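In response to the reviewer comment on reproducibility (Comment 2.3), we provide here a single inverse folding case reported in full, input and output, so that an independent group could reproduce the run without further information from us. The structure tokens appear first.
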């Protein structure tokens, strides 16, 4: 059993990963320390086989720091897991359990309520302990599907895709805003033949529309995006569809192509809609409706929205999509500048000067980002 142990304090967090099938030595240990640099957290991590890693992140948010620390479990120089879903149990130290809890106990809402009631008895520790517990719940919940727990053990989880593109445009947005990425709350929209959104909180992606496969989430060129799983049961029973037929149906004959009956290319769909095609108009209306709905879902993972970012083939070129996607967000203070709603060969901010939310159109450079990763790895 792979077990993560966390000790979240007021100014430092310690963690260790054990796999008791491989012995009693921790496979990975890490520590976060907020005491040395104001507004920044220092990370150190090491593995049982001698690999080490040190880094600094500009953030004061404990959940962001924990998420950053856990990322080292699954990527980078001290990686020991393929996915966080391999973690089967999490243990957390709590300083004061009062009379109610004097031995280790499973975490429930009642247990968390008791920890909170005991804040006065351990004011420097219990609040940090509870925050650590809730942060772990949130971090692991975001990637976990609400199926049987055996799915977690099988590695069935939300992975997300287009990560290189989302990362590049997030960093580019921070550059354009003259801010540290760790200070920003962003929603990045990769809209091409494949489409996905990412909610980026304090520089870290905390949610995504794509899931176990690139089929999940938004309506796409020829992919359906999220659909009621019951539809699949119905088609299997009613039309005797095989898994391969369903795969083809959802990945190659759905989305804009399936609804319009014409093409997976949004330009052709819009042209047909302008010429009076009801199905083409329906396909575009559905695309925008689902996009706005998922933007709303991403907002739930952020405390505020500093910028909405469009990228990829559709996102970089379709003023029609920018306008339609940004409708109904006036309550956030988001306003577009009508004079800027046209394609540009350079990255641009298309929000009005008085807009409280910036709106960027950024040309993604995934190849450049990958080349930079190669340089970084070879340099290391």
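Designed residues, in position order:
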């Amino acid at each position: 059993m792979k077990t993560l142990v966390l000790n979240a304090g007021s100014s430092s967090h310690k963690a260790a990963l054990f796999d008791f099938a491989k012995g009693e030595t921790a496979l990975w240990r890490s520590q976060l320390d907020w005491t040395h640099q104001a507004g920044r957290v220092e990370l150190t991590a090491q593995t049982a086989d001698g690999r080490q890693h040190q880094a600094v992140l500009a953030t004061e948010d404990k959940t962001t720091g924990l998420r950053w620390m856990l990322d080292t479990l699954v990527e980078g120089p001290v990686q020991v897991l393929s996915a966080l879903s391999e973690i089967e149990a999490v243990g957390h130290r709590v300083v004061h359990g009062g009379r109610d809890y004097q031995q280790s106990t499973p975490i429930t809402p009642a247990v968390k309520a008791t920890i909170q009631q005991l804040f006065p008895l351990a004011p420097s520790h219990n609040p940090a302990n509870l925050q650590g517990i809730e942060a772990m719940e949130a971090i692991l919940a975001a990637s976990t599907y609400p199926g049987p727990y055996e799915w977690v053990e099988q590695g069935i989880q939300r992975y997300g895709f287009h990560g290189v593109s989302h990362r590049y445009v997030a960093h580019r947005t921070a550059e354009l805003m003259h801010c540290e990425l760790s200070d920003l709350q962003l929603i990045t929209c990769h809209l091409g033949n494949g489409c996905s959104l990412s909610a980026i909180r304090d520089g870290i992606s905390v949610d995504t529309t794509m899931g176990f496969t690139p089929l999940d989430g938004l309506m796409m060129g020829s992919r359906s995006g999220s659909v009621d799983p019951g539809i699949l049961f119905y088609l299997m029973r009613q039309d005797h569809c095989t898994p391969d037929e369903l795969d083809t149906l959802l990945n190659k004959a759905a989305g804009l192509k399936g609804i319009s009956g014409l093409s997976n290319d949004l330009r052709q769909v819009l042209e047909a809609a302008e010429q009076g095609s009801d199905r083409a108009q329906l396909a575009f209306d559905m695309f925008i409706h689902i996009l706005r709905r998922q933007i709303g879902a991403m907002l739930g993972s952020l405390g505020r929205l500093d910028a909405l970012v469009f990228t990829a083939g559709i996102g970089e070129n379709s003023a029609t999509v920018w306008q339609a996607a940004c409708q109904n967000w006036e309550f956030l203070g988001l306003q577009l500048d009508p004079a800027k709603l046209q394609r540009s060969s350079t990255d641009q901010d298309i929000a009005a000067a008085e807009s409280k939310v910036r709106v960027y159109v950024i040309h993604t450079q995934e190849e450049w980002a990958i080349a930079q990763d190669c340089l970084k790895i070879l340099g290391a």
